[in-house]
């Protein structure tokens, strides 16, 4: 279960399939999740309320449904013998509920990830850690927000396309014996296909980031499968290992659904 729906057509099909559950989601969120669980995890056991393993932070009520901050971190270190292999993120009531999958390497050492996501209606946001031994551990957070997936873009489309693909790597090089935060940002409209062009009154075609890969000296730290739930101008913040393991040539490669590829690299 390591792939996301890769286009808006399949996402729409899933929304139609789940329509009865979506309509009842506000009253019966557990029933909605059971439907998603059966689709993506079949009969696998998921250990719920795994707060001793994983933490998810998000506002109870979002100030802006189109840019809801999400912070995920593990209370256990990544080691060669025990590590989070995949970190699945679900936003139950979004048009594309399976919103992101972080494929993680033990070389990352610390799982501490922040991003911004769209939330379309009151919903649970779930993070499920899939360990290298196959076990599944889930935490969840209920967020009150609405309209995030169809909200107008913050930037004019012409201006957004003029900056398309411009990337930044931001970091603070502090104590070499401590893990350091790094942020990768790309200018991209990440159009969901559900937003309306206020000038033409037609829908803006879907154009979104579907994959981001982060490497350090050629070694993959993480690969992220994403979709329309990621906010405009996608941002990923994570922690690099302490000491020598956290230094080298950091490279980010981003691919969108039009198969355009954008890259940036920086000596850390």
From TrEMBL:
Q: Which Pfam families match?
A: SoxY, SoxZ
All copies of domain Sulphur oxidation protein SoxZ, residue ranges: 176-263
Show where the Ig-like SoxY domain sits.
43-149
Regions that span the bilayer? none
* Keyword line: Signal
Signal peptide region:
1-25
Q: Does the keyword Signal apply?
A: yes
Instruction: Please name the InterPro entries in this protein's record.
Output: Fuse-rel_SoxYZ, Ig-like_fold, Ig_E-set, SoxY, SoxY_sf, SoxZ_dom
- What protein is this chain from? Secreted protein
- The protein's organism comes out as Methylophaga aminisulfidivorans MP
